[in-house]
């Protein structure tokens, strides 16, 4: 495994571990998701460069567009939750209560 592959794999693993173990604030969960998506984007971009194919080069751009949509939807949920509940603690959010 090359050092670049190891660093992107480690970044994705750290993001997923942060998402799994440090779920106190909604903002930290969103940052972990964004870090995972960016590590996937860079890994797919380097993979397309290594394969030297033009047909595969659009895939990282689609992933980047979807991660931007995910980030904007997550920030909208963060603003709505902080206005409704007063904080972004995940323990204070109750999905059964309107």
Describe the structure.
With 98 residues, the chain is mainly alpha-helical. Helices cover 73% and strands 0% of the residues. It has one domain: Helix Hairpins, CATH 1.10.287.3510. Helix 1 runs antiparallel to helix 2 and helix 2 (26-51) runs antiparallel to helix 3. The chain is elongated, with a radius of gyration of 17 Å. The N and C termini lie far apart (49 Å). The model has no long low-confidence stretch (mean pLDDT 84).
What is the level-2 CATH architecture name? Orthogonal Bundle
Number of structural domains: 1
- Principal-axes geometry comes out as elongated
Element string (H = helix, E = strand): HHH
Helix content: over 70%
Give the oligomer, counting copies of the same chain as homo and different chains as hetero: single chain
Distance between the termini: 49 Å
| H/I helix tally | 3
Here the CATH topology equals Helix Hairpins
Class from helix and strand fractions: mainly alpha
Low-confidence stretches: none
**What is the beta-strand fraction?**
under 5%
How many β-strand stretches? 0
Rg estimate, integer Å: 17 Å
Average the pLDDT over all residues and give the rounded result. Answer: 84
Task: Report the top-level CATH class.
Answer: Mainly Alpha
Largest sheet: none
Pfam families: Oxidored_q2 (PF00420)
EC number: 7.1.1.2
Subcellular location: Mitochondrion inner membrane; Mitochondrion membrane
InterPro entries: NADH_UbQ_OxRdtase_chain4L/K, NUOK/Mnh_C1-like
């Amino acid at each position: 495994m090359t050092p670049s592959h190891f660093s992107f794999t480690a970044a994705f693993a750290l993001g997923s571990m942060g998402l799994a173990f440090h779920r106190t604030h909604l903002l930290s969960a969103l940052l972990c998701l964004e870090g995972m998506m960016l590590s996937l984007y860079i890994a797919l971009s380097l993979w397309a460069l290594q394969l030297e194919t033009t047909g595969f080069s659009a895939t990282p751009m689609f992933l980047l567009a979807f991660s931007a949509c995910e980030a904007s939807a997550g920030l909208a949920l963060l603003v709505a939750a902080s206005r409704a509940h007063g904080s972004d603690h995940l323990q204070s959010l109750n999905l059964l209560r309107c």
